[in-house]
Amino acid sequence: MMSFALVAAGCGGTSSSDDPTGAATRTVSTGPPQTSAPPPDAASSAPATEPASPDTANTTAPGTGSDSARCTAEGLTMSVGRADPGAGQVYYRLTFVNKSAHSCTLNGFPGVSLIKRDGSVIGVPAKHEGAARGRTVIAPGKAANATLHTLNQGVKGSGCWDRADYLRVYPPGSKEALTLRDPQLRICGDRFTTTSVEG
């Protein structure tokens, strides 16, 4: 249904004239802005239609059995793809790349928040959309993805959130975060969800 490009997100991916396109991919590692906010708590599933699964990125995704260690924030880099709008919905691919020398696993939902320069959270952390997809093993240099979901500007009357200075993401099971500066995400209609990580 949708095709994701691993390049930086436009602002919300809406049809409005202030949405940039075509920015280059940005990757980050650890080093979030100073904030006392803890990792987002597990959120309830959002009542939204689940987006098409991103293309696999040379990873394996067995159900439960794996001897690989859990991926840590220190061993990952992160990028956000271009906005992919359709029928009032907007999706962004969130990609984790294993930069370590050994395979590792991600299992479940990332904790995703939009952050101001002073470290405060904009809106609320992303809620969970859909079911957990099981353990994903990521080989060195390979990737796994989750999908962020919001609405096109004007679809719902609640408007759009303030623009974020940072995107802060806790990989599943991690208490350390990855941070992306100036993520160019536009969250509208009070819809902000993330799928489980998958290969």
Could you give the topology of this structure?
Elements (H helix, E strand, L loop, with lengths): L68 E2 L5 E5 L3 E3 L2 E10 L5 E4 L3 E5 L5 E2 L4 E2 L6 E4 L4 E9 L14 E5 L7 E4 L11 E2 L5
Parallel strand pairs: 1-5, 8-13
Antiparallel strand pairs: 2-4, 3-4, 4-10, 5-9, 6-7, 6-11, 10-13, 11-12
Radius of gyration from the alpha-carbon trace, in angstroms: 16 Å
Write the H/E string, N to C: EEEEEEEEEEEEE
Shape: globular
CATH topology of the domain at 73-194: Immunoglobulin-like
Report mean pLDDT, rounded to a whole number. 78
How far the N terminus sits from the C terminus, by CA atoms, comes to 18 Å
- Number of beta-strand segments: 13
Oligomer: single chain
Low-confidence stretches: 1-27, 34-38, 40-66
Percent helix, as a range, is under 10%
Name of the level-1 CATH class of the domain at 73-194: Mainly Beta
Architecture of the domain at 73-194 in CATH?
A: Sandwich
Report the β-strand fraction as a percent range: 25-35%
Count helical runs.
Answer: 0
Sheet with the most strands? 6 strands, mixed
Structural class label: mainly beta
Descriptive overview:
The protein is mainly β. It is 0% helix and 29% strand. It has a domain at 73-194: Immunoglobulin-like (Sandwich). It is globular. The chain starts with 68 loop residues before the first strand and ends in a 5-residue tail after the last strand. Mean pLDDT is 78; it is low at 1-27, 34-38 and 40-66.
Give the key terms.
single chain; 199 residues; mainly beta; Immunoglobulin-like; 6-stranded mixed β-sheet; 4-stranded antiparallel β-sheet; 13 strands; 29% strand; globular; disordered N terminus
